[in-house]
Amino acid sequence: MKLILAIIQDEDAPSTVQALVERGYRVTRIASTGGFLRQGNTTLLIGVEDPRVEEVVEIFRRCCRTRTAYLPVAVEATGLLQAHMIEVEIGGATLFVLDVERFESL
Q1: Which InterPro entries match (predicted)?
Q2: Degrees to nearest 5, angle at CA 17 with 105 and 66
Q3: In this model, does residue 83 exceed pLDDT 80?
């Protein structure tokens, strides 16, 4: 058995959770915050039998997309502090697939 810990954007969470539940997976949803952008994320915990891991990964591929965001960056030029916007790609999914030594449902 594996535990998939997935970090996704809040915007992708409803469709991802729905797709997982429709395929019979139990999902625990936790609100989290990313360190780089300091924006809200959703962390999902899913217990998966080994043969079904790739099916879950494919659901994330289908439901989680990348987006373009613009971040303000302070630039000091000629003694003046100016805000400059840079383009960054955010989103998608970060998945950790962990071995489960023991699982009990009580």
Answers
A1: CdAMP_rec (IPR010375), N-reg_PII-like_a/b (IPR011322), N-reg_PII/ATP_PRibTrfase_C (IPR015867)
A2: 135
A3: no
DSSP H or E run through 71: strand 66-77
Give pLDDT tens digits for 18-69.
999 999 999 999 999 876 667 789 999 999 999 999 999 999 999 998 888 8
Handedness of CA 62, 68, 72, 78 (dihedral sign): positive
Where on the phi/psi map is residue 22: left (φ > 0), alpha (ψ -120 to 50), or beta? alpha
**Cα(18)–Cα(96) distance, integer angstroms:** 20
Q: Which of 24, 3, 29, 9 is nearest to 69 (CA)?
A: 9
Residue given tokens 């997982």 in the structure block? 20
Domain ranges of the chain: 2-99
pTM of the full structure: 0.81
Q: Is the pLDDT of residue 77 over 70?
A: no
